[in-house]
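Hi support team,

I submitted a single chain yesterday and got back a structure, but I'm not sure I'm reading the token output correctly. Could someone confirm the output below corresponds to the sequence I sent? I've pasted both exactly as they appear in my results page.

Thanks,
R.
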Amino acid sequence: MRLAVVIGFCMLVSGCFASASTPKPNSGLESDGVSTVTNVSLPSSRLLPFAPTDEFLQCVPYARAVSGIEIYGDAWTWWDQAKNTYNRGKKPEVGAVLALKKTSRLRYGHVAVVAAILDSRKIMVNHANWGSDSRTRGKVHYRQPVVDVSPNNDWSEVRMMNTIGTFGRVYPAHGFIYQPHETAEAH
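Hi R., thanks for writing in. Yes, this is the structure output for that exact sequence:
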């Protein structure tokens, strides 16, 4: 039952990615405007448990707690800190941390944990403190869609769904920091 609810939710959210300017894959079938999600990667077991809290949360302690990636400091520093300790790359994996670069809008960068892979350019993340007002800042947001909008399909530029359900501006990304093998295999 839970799996059916999760798959239904993913199908609903996949409609958020459809737009007039986004090419749709050719399935060879007549389209009635309904998007179908296939091959959704949902092994949430790679995410460590996180107890609900009313405390104000930043993205860094949340990402560290659920990914098992032991990096400290501002989010924009994670990519360089991970260099000699963790594998890094340009392909999403469930449990990996998506590291956004520091910008004038993201003064400390941002990190989010991959919760599901919808296809090669669409993922869902869990992350904290991705809000625009006092109601949404400092909270954990689960399974929020992220789309790769980079010209080379390398996840160097992303758009993240905001808390009002629309995709915001384009953010530059370093890439993904992968979980240690022992963490990924244990969960």
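A quick pointer for reading it: The chain has a mean pLDDT of 79. Let us know if anything else looks off.

Best,
Support desk
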